[in-house]
Amino acid sequence: MGDPSAPVLAAERRCGGAPEADAPAKAPSVVPTRSAPAERLPTTVLWALPPVAVLALVFLYPLALVVQESLAPGAYADVFGSESFREALVTTVWLAVGSTVGCLVLGFALALIIAFVPFPGGKAVSKFIDVFLSFPSFLITLALLFLYGTVGIGNGLWTDLTGAETGPFQFLTTPWGVLLAEITYFTPFVMRPLLAAFSQMETAQLEVASSLGAKPMRIIRQVILPEALPALAAGGSLVLVMCLNEFGIVLFTGAKGVTTLPMLVYGKAILESDYAAACVVAVVNVAISVGLYGLYRVVSRRVGA
């Protein structure tokens, strides 16, 4: 008796519906294609070349010249052994640290008021902070000179009222005047990230803490401050690096005996024409700034900021 399925198989063979039993199976053909990253790589490199070339021409090449000039024989030994360099380094560090601490305290307090204390004109004040960030540093220093300078408004009113020859405001030409000017100018750089962080906070947390009987200082310490720490770290590190490299404020206050590293670079290069010593001080200043930035990056990654 024949196989009943033979006619069906034969029909399928004729119509091409099924492969013949004795025909070897064909391997699927593979069409070679290039990967997408390999196609995009030349284009990416071409687009990256112009900015890299501009960066190398504008920044890396002058920086390399400064480093090369600083490698003059005996330049580092002479600069590190000088009393003026050590005094400038100490002055730069304590002014930068003091200004950063002042900006953090004042900026945190002002940001709290603007963000959580409703008062007329709060939005206008917040917008003014954005505009304040675009002001040059010497403009703020000139404003303080008009107010507290030797011939400023404050001393002028005092002499007019009392008949004295000089007024009581003589601190602007001292290190404390530089500190005041830097805190005044750099505080908005701390407030801006704080206001952005406060705008993302859930007000329900504050309402729950208040309903549980927490006092305002406890709410600030246990609820608001932990949320603001990343913003404080970012703003504080930015202010610290900028204060280390600040030149205009120190120059325009005319503070006697206040010599920072940028002022020392200016004095060595322009006044003394000692370019090798100026380049050494500049390299030290850059190394401190880059080192602080690298430290901030390491710490922020470890704490998950």
CATH fold title of the domain at 93-258: MetI-like fold
Instruction: Point out poorly predicted stretches.
Output: 4-24
> Strand fraction band?
under 5%
Radius of gyration in whole Å, from Cα?
34 Å
Order of helices and strands: HHHHHHHHHHHHH
Please count the beta strands (DSSP E, at least 2 residues each).
0
CATH superfamily of the domain at 93-258: MetI-like
Overall CATH class of the domain at 93-258: Mainly Alpha
Largest sheet properties? none
Shape type: globular
CATH architecture of the domain at 93-258: Orthogonal Bundle
- Which structural class matches the secondary elements? mainly alpha
Mean pLDDT: 80
Q: Total number of helical segments? A: 13
Q: Ends: how far apart?
A: 83 Å
Share of helix, binned: over 70%
Keywords:
mainly alpha; 305 residues; 13 helices; MetI-like fold; 74% helix
